[in-house]
Amino acid sequence: MEQKQHQYELEMKVRDYEVDGQGIVNNANYLHYLEHTRHEFCEHVGLTWREMNDRGWMPVVRKVEITYLSSLRMDDRFLSKLSITRKGVRFIFHQDIYKLDGTHVITAQVTVVSVVNGMPARGDELAEVFKDYFTQE
Amino acid sequence: MEQKQHQYELEMKVRDYEVDGQGIVNNANYLHYLEHTRHEFCEHVGLTWREMNDRGWMPVVRKVEITYLSSLRMDDRFLSKLSITRKGVRFIFHQDIYKLDGTHVITAQVTVVSVVNGMPARGDELAEVFKDYFTQE
Amino acid sequence: MEQKQHQYELEMKVRDYEVDGQGIVNNANYLHYLEHTRHEFCEHVGLTWREMNDRGWMPVVRKVEITYLSSLRMDDRFLSKLSITRKGVRFIFHQDIYKLDGTHVITAQVTVVSVVNGMPARGDELAEVFKDYFTQE
Amino acid sequence: MEQKQHQYELEMKVRDYEVDGQGIVNNANYLHYLEHTRHEFCEHVGLTWREMNDRGWMPVVRKVEITYLSSLRMDDRFLSKLSITRKGVRFIFHQDIYKLDGTHVITAQVTVVSVVNGMPARGDELAEVFKDYFTQE
Fold it and tell me: No. of H helices and E strands in chain C?
């Protein structure tokens, strides 16, 4: 199966309390996985969430579009991948989750804007941190 | 403020453990609010989640598009509203959350399809249950 | 069935995402129910969580002892009840959850101490708020 | 700092959505950490949660006693450790969480009993799996 190109990937594993009464990971938990992946990515590029907070930077999620293609179950291991594009003040995280056998689980676009000391910002401070990771759409 | 027309609404209140380190409700929790509202709506129209499971009906979420407009905080009360349209085999739940003062918090479209005894279905059994609640787009 | 005497009770309902892969409410969610009940109780006696924070008061949980007697399932409604005793600087919340048919679900003791402006406190400010609700052990 | 002897340990990291409005990990999430540690331990000794379910074995938590000694915050890494003792039909998991600098975060005793095909069991099937890991109290 051909997979999209991504700039970063993180291996994770389903925790049993994330599975719901239908035996599959509850929809909302995928937003947790995506958020955790973005935070680990930030740390990977050199900036922890805590450091951002200390500087008064707050990336704010404006929009999430997520399509559920198949389901994760108990004990499943998976790869959570992301790449980024920038459109004006918006950073678009293109995020996909795959099982280790290549099955595509979800695809998502997460739109984030930058808030600095409580005010909307152009995002140049984040763009500098992410600069080696932008892809062309 | 003019609000959209909805067929059903549920008053809820933020629980403290739903608030994250930024003092606002974590993004993923809105999916919980939306899911809970759909389930309460089903019960309102005469069919509990448990009864659906017993009949082998499983509404499956295929896509969520959610736009975050403002934030809920600790102790906030809010109205979670929905209406439904049908497009072929897809049921589109149009869901909005407002604070009691009318502030628009999130707007979402949740696409659901019907699975019966594990097989994709046309959704006529759900359409019958929801029939008094469909709106024209 | 004889039930213990409690000073406060709150009716709640299981939300589907609180149920895990075994079809029953996940153990950790009962701590959420107990916490939510304590916060609603505080609001009931005249002090919201937010007001406490504004005054620099922070009730801190030191210990939880919880015994699981039976399980809650999807759609179950239940009563979450509490009473309080004070032992020196410790407030002991005696909390029990019952199904509406009287089945005892969990029994718990939650030990809370008072922190004021970041320093351990004797708890006299909380004791004043709770004064009409203490029971003798 | 002298730490207790444990038979198994797992390194984990706080995920941001586990932190609540006070900037610290919400009490209920520690039960998730403890549960996840027990499941990883079972997999470590050769039996996944899914395999147990397939065989009709269900370890059921009867009691949790947890004492909160200090708090985990955003980005914290920690060690989740456990050992087991057996008392008749009860398995007692002695679980402790430490920050990487040795700070003791929580100490807990989790009592588990064995249910096989829906009936209470003596637990000999679990005892066989855990046999190299029991400690004397």
Answer: 3, 6
Backbone Cα Rg of chain B: 15
d(CA B73, CA A56): 19
- Spatial distance between the Cα atoms of C110 and C126, rounded to a whole number of angstroms: 15
| Separation of first and last alpha carbons in chain C | 21
Q: What is the dihedral angle through the alpha carbons of A105, B19, B39, C96, rounded to the nearest 10 degrees? A: 120
C-alpha span between D72 and B25 (Å, rounded): 20
ipTM of the complex: 0.92
Q: Along chain B (137 residues), what's the average pLDDT of each consecutive run of 10 residues?
A: 77 91 89 95 87 86 97 93 94 97 97 91 89 80
φ/ψ (deg, to 5) at B68: -95, 115
Distance of CA C73 to the CA centre of its chain: 20
Please state the length of chain C.
137
pTM for this prediction: 0.91
Place of tokens 């958020």: A35
The interface residues of chain C toward chain A in range 19-78, judged by CB-CB distance below 8 A, are 19-21, 23, 26, 28, 74
Q: Best mutation site among A14, A16, A17, A71 for testing chain C: the one with the most C CBs within 10 Å?
A: A17
Contact (CB, 8 A) for A20 and A26: yes
